[in-house]
Target: KRR1 small subunit processome component homolog
Amino acid sequence: MQDVTPTTSRIDKCACTRGQRLQSCLFACSMASSMDPESENGEGKRRRKQGKKESAPVPDSELLTVPDGWKEPAFTKEDNPKGLIEESSFATLFPKYREAYLKECWPLVQKALDEHHVKASLDLIEGSMTVSTTKKTFDPYVIIRARDLIKLLARSVPFEQAVRILQDDMACDIIKIGSLVRNRERFIKRRQRLLGPKSSTLKALELLTSCYIMVQGNTVSSLGPFSGLKEVRKVVLDTMKNIHPIYNIKTLMIKRELAKDPELRTQNWERFLPKFKHKNINKRKEPKNKNVKKEYTPFPPPQPESQMDKELASGEYFLKESQKRKKKLDEIKAKQAEAVSRKQEQRNKAFIPPKEKPAMKPKKASAETKIDIEAFKEKVKKAKKKKLGALPEEEVKQKMAADEKKKKRK
Model:
């Protein structure tokens, strides 16, 4: 998808953006203070110096923080009654698979842009969407929001979410991730890691940042407040750098809890945030055979000894041929004898019995454990009193007779 800008125009001087209007107000205030007649007199200077001493300096944290519940006023037609001088337009291409969806939802897109007096057209032959301002358009920044709307629609964002970009407190960010990882298989794995099992990681990220995130192809489209978009971009880029998103999600959860505390809101949070260390350290495998470099010497290595030199050193050079043959035969016989003895040892290993474990010796009863004879006698007496086994015949007859009498009485 490419962004094409067929026509661009200059905007009317009165139709300035909110930031430009704020800057002009600050400049006017500074000029008014410099033109104050009291500034020429020494009394005015003295008063200002006294006021500076009395008033306490405001900390930077309070100046940079936005008050709770503050909202920027909406830009109305009264701010720019004359409108724009020339027409501005933006166009963007969309893929073939989005054609059916865009054709279906295009009337809703036109209706949403008509409220801001922006014209929208869909060209199915070229595969492009175009937005342009009209004579009734009073907000100069709405054309930028309309451009972002068609960009999001081209990036597979549904219309229900993309239309939120027309609100003042909403912004969008399209992160290109296709060129961050060279290996295609690794790129797919890391993109899937961003989604998580059953898109659970993506849902958690959406809840923490208050942004809508759409992962499609080689891009990640996000829509939400500016603070949330900054966090989304950081998480996405870290995921492509092989840092798991769960670490950033844990950090965001801690930040969310710390922001609720008014005392900790202006303090440094580094001591509360977790510090994760990389466990997978890529260590280069050391080779088995290391080539150790020898120390440098300016002298050449000594000349190796020839066969004649070796024979002269051992005295073999002066032996006769018969003596040389006899010496070689003796060496061969010695080697054969060593080999025979080695094989004999291997054969005899099968006949050597294994070592048996020693039998367990019976433990001697310790003299410290003494038997209590009196307690043992009492146990024997109690056992004698207990009647074991079946009752004798006489007792059984007596019991049966007693049971019969009871029945008759009843």
Observations:
- The first helix runs from residue 18 to 34.
- Strands lie at 3-4, 89-93, 118-123, 128-133, 171-176, 212-216, 219-224.
- Residues 1-54 have pLDDT under 50 and may be disordered.
- The two ends are 106 Å apart (CA to CA).
